[in-house]
Amino acid sequence: MLERNTVRVYRSHGGELFRLSERTLPQPEPVRFPGGLLAATEDAIWVQRSGLPRALLLAVDEAGALVERGQADAFPWPGCPRGLRYRDGTNLLEGAVEGLGDGPFLAVTAGVAVDHEGRVLVATADGPRPSFLRAGPALVSLGDGLFAAASVSAPGPSDTILIFERDDDELRLLQEVEAPGAVRALVTTRQEGATRLLAAVESGERVTIVPFLIRRVAP
User: Fold this and answer.
1) Beta strands 16-24 and 36-40: pairing type?
2) Which is it for strands 119-122 and 112-115: parallel, antiparallel or unpaired?
3) Which of 8, 137, 173, 218 is the most exposed place for a label (fewest CB within 10 A)?
């Protein structure tokens, strides 16, 4: 989890989250509305944040400390040969993503993105196709053509998570789930034939992890 300038690493086991380690990032250039990216591999984590010049590769060492293993000019991303970068001073991502164009994006996942105006885009062979959906900067693939995204609502005491699916080059909204605060990030894990959606929810000065269990209902 990326919280302001700190990365915290958790392990999911038996439906519970256990904190493994944390690390403070280098001091970034000031950004009014910063964005952040995290991607976990088998034994390491790529991290990027608005205001940082390079992406960082972190790993938990034998002593349990989260240490830096490397850096890159851009954040590695599937279907984006040169990676993703934050536009200077913003939370907007830029990079040539297959089927989605060069951006700028608020968020990107497998075959879907949110552009700088909040429109949800679908990747096609002819380039990005705008849908009727609008979303905020939190977006994640749930697998099997399902996606979750935060709404475009202004920060408040509650927020909405949109659950939608892709059917060819079209999107269909399936459900709207209320969250007890502003949704800042979304991530998924697989659990017994279902997808466990974890939302980082901000309420006041506190950020909590709220779990949701997502199951595709057979027609």
Assistant:
1) unpaired
2) antiparallel
3) 218
| 194 and 156 housed in the same domain | yes
**Are 86 and 150 contained in the same domain?**
no
We report the CATH number of the domain holding residue 212 as 2.130.10.10
Domain encompassing residue 202: 97-219
Q: Residues 92-105: pLDDT tens digits?
A: 999 999 999 998 99
22, 66 contact by CB (below 8 A): yes
Distances (CA, A) of 31 to 34, 53, 88, 202: 5, 13, 9, 19
The pair of three-digit structure tokens given for residue 84, joined into one six-digit string: 């993703």
Cα–Cα distance measured from residue 75 to residue 56, given in angstroms and rounded to the nearest whole number: 8
pTM as predicted:
0.86
Model pLDDT for residues 60-78, shown as the tens digit of each residue: 888 888 899 999 999 999 8
As a whole number of angstroms, the distance between CA 87 and CA 103 comes to 10
Q: What tokens appear for 160 in the block?
A: 């909405």
Sign for the pseudo-dihedral over CA of 114, 89, 185, 175: negative
- Asked if residue 30 and residue 80 are part of one domain, the reply reads yes
DSSP string, 124-158: -TTS-EEEEEE--S-EEEEETTEEEEE-SPPS-S-
Peptide bond into 104 cis (omega under 30): yes
What's at 145, amino acid-wise? Answer: G
Nearest CA-CA partner of 129 in 99, 96, 166: 99
Number of domains observed in the structure of the chain: 2
